[in-house]
Write a structure and sequence with these properties.
D-Maltodextrin-Binding Protein, domain 2; three-stranded antiparallel β-sheet; 12 helices
């Protein structure tokens, strides 16, 4: 005997209501996020803290290593990244030269020399002939890339002492892991020193700091997160959830009671002995804003330097390419 129409409709309604939570549950958004150097950039480590509440639910983190922000720019331009870590050197050229006017600064990674924290080093041989900046005349300077942040900051310092590129010194390019060897093998007279590479025993024994980045240009917002506006807006929930987890993990790393475990997490990932990582996430490490909020004025100052040295054809108003609503919403949840 057939069920009455009303009974069949009622059962169908009950079935739909029962399945509604399953039907409404969307798959996590794949979130590919770049990083270059760990533990300065700790995105690859946040899941191991046990503090991420949204990973695997609203988003799935895929931490992608890119050797430089130039590589990150290429990757986000080709759709291989959702969030890229940039220095100021990539922002202007991406917007002005590549037409990527939809790029938005959305969060902060770390800063140099802020509030007395760690600053990048420009190093020479401990027992070598370079005793002051003027001694670099006629010498070879190593930077990661021409036009990179390290290149610009080095040029600013040498210009303060009357030295100009091409006229007074030569620049060569080498990546951060090889800087120490280039200096110790006397293939360069000045190199850029960043952690964890400055912690290597050979570098600590054979090199010394000639000047620091903060001495050259003051505190700087070194690395920040960028995304593409349309994708960010379409995936706002996942982006805010990621930054909530990122901020929570950042605060966990900064908590002295977690220091030993934090060092071990970084050691497991980098394969660097824990004793060489003893200063990470302390005052001797880079500054990380507790709300992951970028310092837009600092980024603007750096972009202006890029224009000064001819790497940008015109000025750029950084504020027009920032949307801090994602980290602001994430931080409000943690108040």
């Amino acid at each position: 005997m057939a069920l009455p129409i009303r009974t069949r409709n009622l059962r169908a309604l009950v079935t739909v209501l029962a399945l509604a939570p399953l039907l409404a549950k969307a798959d996590p958004v794949p979130l590919r996020v770049s990083w270059a150097v760990t533990p300065a950039q700790f995105t690859p480590l946040i899941i191991d803290t046990g503090t991420t509440r949204h990973h695997g639910k609203s988003y799935t983190l895929e931490a992608w290593r890119t050797p430089s922000s130039a590589t990150a720019l290429q990757a986000i331009g080709s759709g291989e990244l959702e969030l890229a870590t940039f220095t100021f050197t990539q922002l202007g050229p991406a917007i002005q030269n590549a037409g990527m006017t939809d790029l938005r600064i959305v969060g902060d990674d770390f800063r140099d020399g802020t509030d007395g924290h760690e600053t990048n080093l420009f190093m020479v041989l401990k027992d070598g002939p370079i005793q002051k900046v003027l001694d670099l005349k006629g010498k070879v300077v190593a930077v990661p890339n021409l036009g990179s942040g390290m290149d610009i900051y080095m040029r600013v310092m040498l210009r303060k002492h009357g030295l100009e590129y091409l006229r007074d010194y030569t620049i060569i390019e080498t990546q951060f892991p090889t800087m120490g060897a280039m200096l110790l093998q006397k293939k360069a007279d000045l190199v850029v020193g960043v952690k964890p590479f400055t912690l290597a025993p050979a570098v600590r024994d054979g090199a010394r700091t000639l000047f620091t980045q903060v001495e050259a240009v003051g505190p700087t917002d070194m690395v920040f997160f960028v995304g593409r506006d349309d994708w960010l807006k379409r995936n706002r929930v996942a982006v805010v959830d990621f930054f909530e987890d990122f901020i929570r993990a950042s605060r966990w790393f900064a908590d002295p009671t977690n220091h030993e475990k934090a060092v071990q997490i970084a050691s497991n990932f980098t394969k660097i002995p824990p004793q060489q990582l003893a200063t990470i996430f302390t005052k001797e490490d880079f500054y990380r804003d507790p709300d992951a909020r970028p310092d837009i004025e600092s980024i603007q100052r750096s972009v202006n330097m890029l224009r000064e040295f001819g790497f940008l054809k015109e000025g750029l108003d950084v504020r027009k390419f920032a949307d801090l609503s994602y980290v602001e919403e994430a931080a409000r949840r943690l108040k």
